[in-house]
Write a structure and sequence with these properties.
Helix content: 25-40%
Largest sheet: 7 strands, parallel
Distance between the termini: 23 Å
GO molecular function: glyoxylate reductase (NADPH) activity; hydroxypyruvate reductase [NAD(P)H] activity; NAD binding
Enzyme class: oxidoreductase
Family: Belongs to the D-isomer specific 2-hydroxyacid dehydrogenase family.
Domain D-isomer specific 2-hydroxyacid dehydrogenase catalytic: 12-312
Radius of gyration: 21 Å
Strand content: 5-15%
Pfam families: 2-Hacid_dh (PF00389), 2-Hacid_dh_C (PF02826)
Length: 313
Amino acid sequence: MDSIGVLMPVPMSPYLEQELEKRFNLLKLWTVPQKTQFLKDHSGSIRAVVGNAGNGADAELIETLPKLEIVASFSVGTDKVDLNKCREKGIRVTNTPDVLTDDVADLAIGLALAVLRRLCESDRYVRSGQWKKGDYKLTTKFTGKTVGILGLGRIGKAVAKRAEAFSCPISYHSRTEKPELKYKYYPCVVELASNCDILVVVCALTEETRHIINREVIDALGPKGVLINIGRGPHVDEPELVSALLEGRLGGAGLDVYENEPEVPEQLFELENVVLLPHVGSDTVQTDTAMADLVIGNLEAHFSNKPLLTPVV
């Protein structure tokens, strides 16, 4: 398979790059200055694209690559892949579900604890020598808080399971009610936000869920509520979130994702009730390896005319 061209638009996992180079002709788009000409020059040999949560395969790229057969995403989300265009052209699409569920769910709980117990601010308090001048102020308990989950898929269920260990009542909103689960279902997001202390966003990004966390939802969550976003940045109307935090209409936020990554609103930098992470939800050594192996497994299956391991399209 070493003659098969595989395009990687941006750097991802060093392990993934290494393993792809062993098996295919890996073309690293970010390393060339004239990207448009490079794509034209190699359009006849590129049969696969490996994307991620931030860079996939839009309609323009797909049209540029007439030999493209498969887009393998190094992520669960495929919102950066034009799925309709792929269906139209018979291009297969895969992702990496399940293997990152635990890490992302762990991080959601970690963010909630960090916001409520002011872990990051407390760390800075010690490092700056302030502790010598007096004890840090009291913070807020996590155990027993009502946790609302927006999107009760694999990761949402894993977040719920972890929150239950902290004696947290669980409620949720999703496209459909899941009667097999014991959690409280709310038919709209505003109602969910009105009835929880912590709102965890973990649904898929679609046109319907873009800015699903708007001013009305934020105000329903209220000045004692905490928003945790481990889904996608565009789920949240970011200017509304910033103004709510600055004005005290929202109690706090733990964010791993943003609307225009890696750009983050600087107004958030000095707020002690906000914890900011650089989109690292699944970034552990173990999960990185498992995701990379799944990407490679899907590519090898496709080019060997075997069933895909995790097909999306």
